[in-house]
Amino acid sequence: MSSRHSPELSGARATSPANTSAAGEVGRAPLVVSNFINGEFVAPASGAYIDDIGPATGEVIARIPDSDARDIDAAVRAAHSAFPAWSRTPVAERSRLLLRLADLIENNLEELARLESRDNGKTVTLARRLDIPRAVANFRFFATAILHYASEAHPTDGVALNYTLRQPLGVAGLISPWNLPLYLLSWKIAPAIATGNTCVAKPSELTPLTANRLAQLARDAGLPPGVINIVHGLGAKAGDALTSHPKVPLISFTGGTVTGAKVAMAAAPHFKRVSLELGGKNPNVIFADADLPEAVKTSIQSSFANQGEICLCGSRIFVERSIHDHFVDEFVAATKQLRIGDPWDEATDVGALISAAHLEKVSGYVELAKQEGGTIVAGGRRIDGAGFFFEPTVVTGLGCDRRVLQEEIFGPVVTITPFDGEDEAIAFANSTRYGLSATLWTRDLQRAHRVAAALDAGTVWINCWLVRDLRVPFGGMKESGVGREGGFESLSFFTEAKNVCVKLA
Ligand code: TXE
Predict the structure, then answer these.
(1) Is 311 marked active-site?
(2) Are residues 252 and 218 in the same domain?
(3) Which of 46, 208, 406, 455 suits a disulfide with 438, CB 3.0-4.6 Å?
(4) Do 192 and 112 share a structural domain?
């Protein structure tokens, strides 16, 4: 496959053919995925299936249940029945089962990394380094965090004792996206069940394979039937049935901002607790005093890792004018070194985009960038042949009011814009409706703290990117979301605080 990706690419180098390749999977019979309800693998009520396309090949690699409200209802019933026993299971036992599941994921890391790469188009090296280890870490973290989750007590002037009970809510509805499939699914399942809830998860219809494998591993780990249920299918059908189900009091959703609004509307009539982790248009602000080689190296990562399909990618780079031209030269040179092609080739840096539709969307934004007056200084083209590949692309010459700097592209496309002074940097960075994360590069400690405080972002990285500690709060401002998860924020989101007041005198 790689040889099809012609070496004359303007923005990237093609990888050499590999012995094992995602394309080498062409012709294999598609896997048939089932729903996982009450500990059993079952067919959808409708008997209908939808195709799961491998992004690197354009081939059907699996067929997944086209589930509807009946399947969701069956899963919710199973989760509901399992809830009383699971919520009363001693915390040490819940912890032990989660740790066992973490071990099983770790033992199957290579298989899961290949599944993730095949299903999503991401490089297997990234799946090995980031996605699957993070799923292991999510289960381990919440398995142990729950052991230390205390609640407060307030002796009230000798008259009464107030204390807080933190109780699970019941059936958690969990909806995850396609960009970091197992990573984000486990980010929701682990805290939901660690705190004593049961759950119904609806993974993205574009990337069902590692969720399917997780179901098998959960069963092998000895998790009781009904604690984790996984229903596959389309968002507008299965997803909507879950968000509007009256017996699901809590929804954790990660996905696009437009979908997030639909989820919020479906949940509102039932007054469900909702956590929404949505899109981003994250600024990457580089001051003239930055460590430039480090800023270039990390900005390549933050722009193009996972093909730019991470909500935390820094898609708008702002560079202080005195170093702007030099930065652009260095950044473009580094972009052209990136190797695009077979995600299973160890040498590949940039794999395939998730779908043909997404490739269209990304290409459309690059055309728009030209129409808006931008200059494409690297990349800019899709790659002919099977699979959904697009060159890492750098656009210069566009102001903050352009659509290309306002709308989430969610692909390997980054803009670079000069700024003059700290105030303008902050104004440019804050000029979108999003507020998920931001990165800034400077050696001036005071400025770093000053600018970090002024940025509209749930997370600010200073002189680094994607350094994640599972204990810290995570979420977005503005249209990037509502609520925080991560660490004790997750434990708090997945539990109901109840005040108990005992009269003492
Ligand atoms: O995601 P959707 P899409 C952004 C990115 C991308 C855009 C659209 O810009 O181009 O969103 O991507 C389920 N009720 N992000 O359309 O639709 C769906 O089945 C309930 C950013 O692929 O948001 C899937 O499981 N659920 C992002 C999940 O929502 C519904 C990651 C996400 O799909 C539903 C992904 C409905 N009505 C896309 N409609 C991030 N923040 O990381 C869909 N779903």
Answers:
(1) yes
(2) yes
(3) 455
(4) yes
pLDDT confidence tier of residue 505, bands split at 50, 70 and 90: confident
Q: Examine the domain organization and report whether 173 and 270 are in the same domain.
A: yes
pLDDT-based confidence at residue 29 (cuts at 50, 70, 90): confident
User: Tokens representing 24?
Assistant: 């080498």
- Residues 204, 333, single domain; the answer is no
287 shares a domain with 139: no
Kindly give, in sequence order, each residue whose CB lies less than 8 Å from that of residue 258, ignoring residues fewer than 6 positions away.
Answer: none
What was the pLDDT predicted at 15? 45
Choosing from 259, 407, 408, 477 the residue with most ligand 1 atoms within 8 A of its CB, the one to mutate for a pocket test is: 259
Q: How far is the CA of 275 from the centre of ligand 1 (A)?
A: 14
Whether residues 170 and 287 share a domain: the answer is: no
**Total structural domains within the chain:** 2
Question: Is 489 a catalytic site residue?
Answer: no
Helix locations, 152-200, DSSP H: 181-194
Q: Is residue 314 part of a domain?
A: yes
DSSP bridge partners of 319:
286, 418
d(CA 403, CA 431): 12
β-strand partners of 498: 165
| Structural domain contains residue 165 | yes
Out of 116, 205, 277, 408, which one is annotated catalytic? 277
Q: Whose CA is nearest to atom 25 of ligand 1?
A: 204
pLDDT > 80? residue 2: no
pTM: 0.95
